Amino acid sequence: MNTLQQLKNKTILFLEDNIEFAKNTIVLLDVFVKNVYHVTTISEAQRVLGDVHVDIIVSDIKLKQESGLDFIQKVRNKDKLTPIIILSGHKDEDFLFRSIPLGLTAYLLKPIKYEELIKALELCSQKIDLNQNKTIELKDDLYFDTETKTLVKDGKNISLNKKEALFMELVSCNRERLITKEMIHSSVWEFQEMSDSAVTNFILRIRRRFGKTFIYTIPDVGYRLKP
Fold first, then answer.
1. Any idea which fold 133-224 has?
2. Whether the model pTM is above 0.90
3. How many Å apart are CA 67 and CA 61, to the nearest integer?
């Protein structure tokens, strides 16, 4: 099934207090999901979360009287899994640093580009699928357990450090797709400073632990699970 088609029965909570922008964005979101609950305040957002099941959260970072970051923090105190997309009128490096522990799925700048929205929704769909399927086969009878964040081979758990676990989660979501350095930057380094040599050394350590053919390099582009 197409990744976006899996969203047809899903619900989005959309926190945005710019009414005109919200109207235009809802038109786009309605194409892909069943329901969009639009709210303009954190209290309204929390009411929706208490009343209905929400599959994806889309929130502006700066509301007129409130902080979207505060809202997301409250969500994450109870819910570590729901995909969250953040919207912002400008790139805010301080916010990116503060948001590292919040597990954001995407960070989009206004005005939203259609292609970037599609990519963000695809990532949300993959994350939902990952959360629903506890164990995902990667290759050669090697599985990633999404609940314990460990690899499983021959019935035995292989413990992972934090970056390895985040990388395996990224690979699990993109088994048939290219994994770019930008994806590794956001998912594994969580927007922290990252050099090309750091990525290269990290991939070398992954191959040392799990085999030379565990991940393939696509020169000047990125990596793939399969050649």
1. Arc Repressor Mutant, subunit A (1.10.10)
2. no
3. 6
